[in-house]
């Protein structure tokens, strides 16, 4: 398969502009694209598709790429399959997945990206690259018809991965405890991507990028730290 | 209605034993009970029904109340309707709700508690007291047949409510941002219960207890702080 995918933990680093830290990478990733298709369905903070698309267009203008929101098309499936490149932004994963199913584009989106159309996901848009959305951090604000997602990689993602705060007195579950609960019922590997990390998927090769380590959770095993540059193609 | 319910944010305060801070309250709440029914379905950290029930039994032994897990009964519906008192513990809300539906006891549990059987919920066991489980903090580790829950109060709960950490550089959504996203699609009030707070529901009266304030989120309104002792019966 000719996959060409960036799966980023976050769109924005603390103190930085939207997509700023990724722009050098995106310039290369989308080098053959004059215009990309943006999927704004996750609507962070409930903002409209129009507002969200305008924000994305401002960021991509810096690398001379135009952006069109999928909501501007009459036929969403054709918009996906004809796109030069595709970006799915962050927000609420339950909402994003519900909308992908409601608009009947989950399958065509997976097929199009597997065929080689360059794809970028951030946060919720990265969550859906895994086998299921079941390791999202988001609130279930809407009931999706299924938790199954694009399956562009053979494992699940936990974007915005957060290490336990050892000074905290809060008794809510840590991120690691939540992933352990996931593994009590599912045997899919989970990759915790810290903010500033991303995965680069080129064909059959999946590489951890950025300066940070990622945390890999395998069922019934102690989690391990993965170094930047590691090839994760061995994960099944 | 003769409701007699405690809806607690957490089972355990930092540095305290399991249920310790609530025991004086529970002694009164379950004063007519020699034995209570425990619903261990939420399985925190994936522990077994047996282990979880043993932990709860140890805590309730301190106030001379026996505990029997619902998994020890042949007929779950009869166990619920005949119980002297009922406690649903915390863990994963998706798992808890899935199990309540799978075992066909969601409706009988709601009816039994509305009829006056004393009920205690902590964390996930509190989440299900609201209209829906859609303001849980938990990961969707299992796909439930519905997000609709017991509706013992006419609003939703957010247990383990956490104020934004103003010193944090993490870019994941704050709890308040997540509840704002919920309100973009739902017009149900949401009560954020901080750890150490609980609601006492007696008949038609719902009172905030404990020493802390709670944070009330109404759709399209700025959230407000609610003082301990406030009667929340006006919420619809």
Automatic annotation (TrEMBL), chains A, B:
Pfam families: Peptidase_S51. Belongs to the peptidase S51 family. It comes from the Bacteria. GO terms for biological process: proteolysis. This is Dipeptidase E. NCBIfam families: PRK05282.1. Keywords: Hydrolase, Protease, Serine protease. The keyword Phosphoprotein does not apply. The keyword Protease applies. InterPro entries: Class_I_gatase-like, Peptidase_S51. One of its GO terms (molecular function) is serine-type peptidase activity.
């Amino acid at each position: 398969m000719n996959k060409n995918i960036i799966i980023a933990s976050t769109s924005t680093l603390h103190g930085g502009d939207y997509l700023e830290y990724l722009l050098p990478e995106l310039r290369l990733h989308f080098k053959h694209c004059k215009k990309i298709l943006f999927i704004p369905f996750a609507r962070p903070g409930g903002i409209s598709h129009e507002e969200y698309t305008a924000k994305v267009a401002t960021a991509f203008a810096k690398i001379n790429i135009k952006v069109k929101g999928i909501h501007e098309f009459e036929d969403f499936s054709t918009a996906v399959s004809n796109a030069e490149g595709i970006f799915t932004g962050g927000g609420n994963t339950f909402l994003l997945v519900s909308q992908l199913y409601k608009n009947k584009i989950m399958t065509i989106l997976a097929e199009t990206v597997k065929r080689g159309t360059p794809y970028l996901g951030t946060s919720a848009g990265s969550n859906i690259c895994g086998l299921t959305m079941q390791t999202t951090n988001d609130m279930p604000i809407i009931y999706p018809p299924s938790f199954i997602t694009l399956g562009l990689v053979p494992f699940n993602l936990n974007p915005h991965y957060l290490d336990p705060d050892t000074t905290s007195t809060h008794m809510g579950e840590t991120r690691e405890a939540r992933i352990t609960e996931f593994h009590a019922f599912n045997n899919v590997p989970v990759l915790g991507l810290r903010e500033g990390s991303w995965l680069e998927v080129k064909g059959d090769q999946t590489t951890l990028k950025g300066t940070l380590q990622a945390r890999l959770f395998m069922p019934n095993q102690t989690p391990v730290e993965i170094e930047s540059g590691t090839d994760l193609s061995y994960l099944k």
